[in-house]
Amino acid sequence: MRYFPKLTEYIEDLHREKHSPSCGIIIYSNHKKIYENYWGCEDAERTRKTTGKTLYNMYSCTKPMTVAAGMMLWERGLIDLDAPVEKYLPEIAEAFVLKDGEKVKVGGKMLVRHLFTMSAGFDYGITSRHISELVKKTRRKASTRDMISAFTATPLMFEPGERFYYSLCHDVLAAVIEVASGMRFADFMRENIFEPLGMDSTCFHMSAEEKEKRMALIWKWDGEKLLNFGRNNGYELTDNYDSGGAGLISCAEDYAIFADAMACGGLAKNGYRLLEDETICYMASNGLAGFVKHPESFSSVVGDGYYYGLGVRVREDEEGSEEGYPGEFGWDGAGGCCFTANMRDGVSIVFTEHLFCWPDAQGKLVHVNMRKAFYEDYLAGTVSDGDNAICDECESEYLRSSSAMTSMCPECAHVIFGYPKCEHVFKGGRCIKCRWDGSESLYIKELKSE
């Protein structure tokens, strides 16, 4: 495994100087783990060191996985993105907006695609009167599907398709997945994503006793000091409510398996096909342009230069940008966890921490700067001229060279970075010039045939 000095120094600074008591990172490159490191402790007494199995509330890092589940059903023909949501959830027909103080039903205009693209008109009011009453009435037993009626009892902020608005859309999508699959959302995720990928520590609900044993404490930066926020997730509205927007519990080791599969065109390192590569490219295409009235309404906490796809932000192709890498997609959560993936080079990055108000404590570009530090180390170790380097695949030495767009081990033909015969223009998961799909296989096949 390589050493990444700039990246290591950057995260050490987050831990020591920028209020991250427990954090970790795992980076994969085409199914091979190339970097892993952890800092701090899970507990306030500092008796349990952070590991790859330390659990975190992933909060909004749940969303990309929920969308992936929805796209699995889309591939199977069980979800129609352009069908009315009321086809799956009849109670959505009651959704309304207020015009001049009068209720105007607009639920019939809400399409499934509006849920995927956060443009259905919902808000994020999890403490609304209707939700609180349902939770109390059912003694915290209301299900994901039960909660939809409480969502529709509150006016939508705008008619579906008006603009992007960060909201409960993916929680409603979880209910659609339940109806389309005939399974509880948590069960569908377990049987189709967690278990096939080998994500053994990932779930939606956990007892307080288990959280005490396995989960890192949540901290909040109030501008002056860290406050202990325990381990509970406020988005877990009831014991039976599986939040598709913020309910996931996972660890760095588990989530990194998912991120690696996404970066490798939907194929996991154990051979499980999560999604087709064309589907992931679809997720990473602009989901708002040409669909909502105001696609410019999307903005990202990590800065400009991103558009919104299906459940992920995507870096636009901008030459010379230092705030991201074209084609990179991902998301982050309220507690500071984040992931990015890039099918162009098969690299995925997963960072875990439990820190509310992380943009204030660490800066809103903290995740961008983390990726920047990684790529500076990554490229310096693969395409700079001079001394020898060690191949990650076969551990033999090779001479570094920057004369081509790639660096390749002469012993095992492992492509370290890039593809040397074309200046790629990717569309639909492949280069439109050479048809390379981002994997090593095409280059190695051509190399051996010459």
Outline type? globular
Strands, total number: 20
Q: Major beta sheet, specifics?
A: 7 strands, antiparallel
CATH topology tier name of the largest domain? Beta-lactamase
Summarize the SSE layout with pairings.
Elements (H helix, E strand, L loop, with lengths): L4 H13 L4 E8 L2 E9 L14 E3 L4 H14 L20 E4 L2 E4 L6 H5 L12 H9 L9 H6 L16 H13 L3 H13 L10 H7 L4 E3 L4 E3 L20 E3 H12 L13 H7 L22 E3 L4 E3 L13 E4 L5 E5 L4 E7 L1 E2 L1 H5 L3 H15 L7 E3 L6 E3 L7 E2 L6 E3 L8 E2 L2 E2 L9 H9 L1
Parallel strand pairs: 6-14
Antiparallel strand pairs: 1-2, 1-13, 3-8, 4-5, 6-7, 9-10, 10-11, 11-12, 12-13, 15-16, 17-18, 19-20
Helix pairs in contact: 1-12, 2-6
Structure explained in plain terms:
The protein is of the alpha+beta class and 450 residues long. It folds into three domains: 5-57 and 204-380, Beta-lactamase (3-Layer(aba) Sandwich), CATH 3.40.710.10; 70-181, Beta-lactamase, CATH 3.40.710; 388-449, no CATH class. It contains 13 helices and 20 strands. A hairpin with a 2-residue loop joins strand 19 and strand 20. Helix 1 runs antiparallel to helix 12 and helix 2 packs parallel to helix 6.
Features:
seven-stranded antiparallel sheet; Beta-lactamase; 17% strand; 450 residues; 20 strands; alpha+beta; 13 helices; disordered C terminus; 3 domains; 28% helix; globular
Quick structural overview:
Helix content is 28%, strand content 17%. It is α+β, with helices and mostly antiparallel strands. Helix 1 (5-17) runs antiparallel to helix 12 (366-380) and helix 2 (62-75) packs parallel to helix 6 (169-181).
